[in-house]
Design brief:
seven-stranded antiparallel beta sheet; 185 residues; 4 helices; single chain; alpha+beta
């Protein structure tokens, strides 16, 4: 059964273009070194921009802006964990208005394309009008999340499942460390 929503011409980038980009990140091997990440970025015409977090915070995770020639991307970034490429994130179909109809249309069309490629997604929670959708493919996680409360955007993320889980576990462990109390005070 074909679940693709027919996109309208005003969607930039086109949903088929977005699905093709996702396939390039999901179907091949995930970069296992920084040199392989750089090679993937060159092939996809991505460039690393500014670092978004502070190197001095002691975190094992680093975030960078991602520069891309893909039209219609309002913001993009990528993350590493312990020096290994972990994930990439795109904000698509972004508008400054709540409940943007083109954003919803883009979400539905991209979700339809991804469902055609990878089957039905899981939804981690159902307490939103449009809950996030997650596809697990080739040890990757593809996630879409529609935001429409204040402004409108579709966030699309592709990550290495193992690295994402390790980063999350470390972050949880770091936030649950009890503060050391100096008994001399």
């Amino acid at each position: 059964m074909n679940t693709t929503v027919e996109p309208q011409s005003e969607l930039t980038p086109g949903p088929a273009t977005v699905a093709a980009l996702v396939a390039q990140l999901v179907d091949g091997p995930w970069p296992s070194s920084d040199e392989k990440r750089k090679s993937l970025f060159r092939r996809l015409h991505f460039k690393t921009g500014e670092r978004l977090d502070h190197d001095s915070d002691g975190s094992s995770t680093a975030s960078f802006t991602l520069l891309t020639d893909l039209p219609g991307v309002s913001f993009a970034s990528w993350d590493s964990f312990r020096g290994r490429f972990m994930s990439v994130h795109f904000h698509l179909y972004s508008f400054p208005d709540a409940q943007g109809p083109a954003t919803r249309l883009g979400h539905d069309a991209v979700s339809g394309k991804l469902t055609d490629l990878y089957g039905q997604p899981t939804r981690p929670w159902e307490d939103e009008e449009v809950p996030p959708s997650i596809w697990k493919v080739n040890r990757r996680e593809i996630a879409t999340h529609l935001f429409t409360k204040r402004d409108s955007t579709l966030m699309l993320s592709i990550s290495d499942e193992e690295l994402e889980a390790a980063a999350e576990a470390e972050a949880v462990h770091q936030t649950h460390k009890p503060d050391k109390i100096d008994p001399s005070l």
